[in-house]
Structure formats: C-alpha cells, structure tokens
Amino acid sequence: KGAVPCAYTADLGQPDEPDLADVAARAKQYGASVARVVSCVEQLVHEGLVALQCGAFHITTAGKTYFNTTPLGRAVTGTLLVRAMQEDDVDIWGDGSTYKGNDIERFYRYGLLANPALRIYKPWLDAAFVAELGGRAEMSAFLAKHKLPYRDSAEKAYSTDANIWGATHEAKSLEELSTSMHIVAPIMGVAHYDPKVKIEPEDVRVRFHEGWPVAINGREFSSRVDLVREANAIGGRHGLGMSDQIENRIIEAKSRGIYEAPGLALLHIAYERLVTAIHNENTLENYHQMGRRLGRLLYEGRWFDPQSLMLRESLARWVGTLVSGEVTLQLRRGDDYTILNTTGDNITYAPERLSMERVEDAAFGPNDRIGQLTMRNLDINDTRDKLDAYRTSGTLGPGGLTELE
Hints:
The chain has two domains: 6-343, Argininosuccinate synthetase, chain A, domain 2 (Alpha-Beta Complex); 350-405, no CATH class. The protein is α+β, with helices and mostly antiparallel strands. A hairpin with a 5-residue loop joins β12 (243-248) and β13. The chain starts with 5 loop residues before the first strand and ends in a 12-residue tail after the last helix. 39% of the residues lie in helices and 19% in strands. The protein has twelve helices and 15 strands. The model has no long low-confidence stretch (mean pLDDT 94). A five-stranded antiparallel beta sheet has the order 11-10-9-14-15, covered by helices on one side. It has a four-stranded antiparallel beta sheet with strand order 7-8-13-12. The protein has helices at residues 23-29, 41-54, 69-87, 103-114, 127-132, 136-145, 224-236, 262-278, 281-299, 306-318, 366-375, 377-393, and strands at 6-11, 34-39, 59-61, 64-66, 92-94, 119-121, 159-163, 166-170, 202-209, 212-216, 219-220, 243-248, 254-260, 325-331, 337-343.
C-alpha cells in the first residue's frame, strides 16, 4: 500500500491472450504509472529449441513427456522483464507466485541473476496481504468490489498458464486424481479424447539441420517463431502432445498438471528419431541421462547456472550438431502416429550390415563372430566365479536361475 505500481507483461506468444496488446492500457487504467508489454517470443523459442536439442525433459509417465514449457517461459520472463525494468530505473519486483509453488523460487533466482541490486516483494509472503486477500475467492471479490474486470472473472474448474510452447492446466478440480483430463478444454488443439471430435490422418515432414528445425513439409520459414507456430497448428489438429503428469515440485511436494505442447511434441518425435539413427548406444545413454538432469535444473529455475551451461554446451555440440535430416510421420489421433521415413547424411543405420542375404562385401562373417563370442568367455567365467562366491557366503539364497551349476 502506498507504492507506485509499474506493470510489465511478457509477450510469450501465449495462445490464451488474444488482447495482449491491450494489457498495458488496462494496467494504466487500474493505476500503473508505467505499463509495458515486453516481447519475449523470439528468446523463448530459442531457449525451447536448445532444450529440444539437449532432451532437457525429465518428467515422463509411461512414454508421455512434459516438455518443461512453463519453466522455459519463466527463464525468459524472469530475465527479460527485469532487464526492461532496469531501463525504467525500476528495481523492485513483485509478482503473484505463491509460497507453495515453483515460480516464487524461479523468479527469485532469475530476477537476481539479471539484476543483483533487485529488491523483491512477494505478496504471498506478506502476512498482511495474505490476511486480506488470502485466496482466489477473496481476490475475485476485491476486484468485483472495485469494479475491476479481469479475464477469468467467470470461474473455471482449473487454472491455465500458457506460452508459445505449451499450456499448463492445474489446480482446483484437477488437484483430485479422480478428475481426468476430460474436463480440460484444450487451447492449443483439439480434445483428442472426445469421440465426437473428428480427426483425419495427416502426413508431415520435419527437416533438421545441425540440430535446428529448418523446414516443415518442405517449407522453410522466415523465422523460427513462424516455424514453431506452424508446428503447433499441425500438432494441435491431432491433439498431439497432451499429457497428465504427477511431478515433484522444487520443495518436493507432489503436484498434478495437464499439459499441452503440440508443436514441441512434433519436433521432439522427429528429433529423437534422427538422434537414434545417428548416434551410438553410449552417446544415447549420455544424451538421456544428461538431458534428464538438465531438465530438472531447468525445472528448478537453474537454466543459466554453470552446471546447466556445462550440460547444454556438451549436448548441443556433441549430439545436436550431427542431427541433420528429415523425418516423415503420419499423425492420427492424440499421440498415435507412425514414422514413414527417415533420411539424413549422418545416419549410421545401415541395414546391409545385419542382412542375412549373401553379399560379397559383408561387414563381418561367421568366423568374426566366433572370435567375438570367444572373448566373452572371460567375463562369463568371472560371473560364474562371483555367483559361486555369493552362494558360499550365503548372500545368494537357493532357487532361481542363478543356481545354475
């Protein structure tokens, strides 16, 4: 109370904000002395594509992936808005992140990284604020009393947060695990789970060059932002990339979210197809392990920390730079798809190496395999000795295949 408010809004290409350009005018109408909409879309698209190159996604359930779309948005928002504030000599940051969520820590970290002199006011850590406006109902009543309309004045059964890469639906009814994603009205595509929604199969070609997507269906785009929007439109027509996840927040309490990421899901399918066709098993193991670790760091608001930069540089350089080629897919309903073709100069998949047809220049023959198998006798004997030692010590009990003599 008594402060001079300045309003900064991030343009993240959010699909649920059709009137984003009007936000600054509304903020001034509500009392802001400074009000700006800061363009963050290009940087957000760049960071998202870096995350794609690195496989920086750690939350998966039975093959369904959460693409860290909200953490990506927070990394860009927390950095670029604070820089915009510095331009106006504003050095106090306040936002609506709650003390139970991840964003309060993400914005804290990114804000202080961008401006070490930043002073931070978090309303949800202010006892007086919580006492007066301690919940959604109280805030809605306050806005109505002061005749300040807001977008979600008609209460939904859940809350939504979105940017160009994806949408997050959570809280309220979705906090109950007995409530399925069927109550969610997607904002980036169709409800693939609704049998009344007609979805036709569609063939799509995605081309990469040195780890970066460069064309969809043979069309190159003037900007990566336009390419991502096209990927979103195509994936959205099929309900691609929707997932229901239970995750561990930064404070290790579990939360549940319904996520949309149609374009990133499409690009991810094509990218990983090329990755597996190009790189060997040990490289793939590092890609998955390091990418998962990087995904958690991104989730925690550490995208620009040294440990993240080490992983990002390594994965982008040694995995991403060789990923050039094109993948053709047929998209159907939801995450139902078929890969129709995979091409690329760096692909090491060579069917003739394993073909049992008679050829003159075979990569190897029966005698070569005999020698390779003979060398395996060393570690087979070592394993047998270890099993005998375990039985003698009582570490290995009776029964099971390990009792083989």
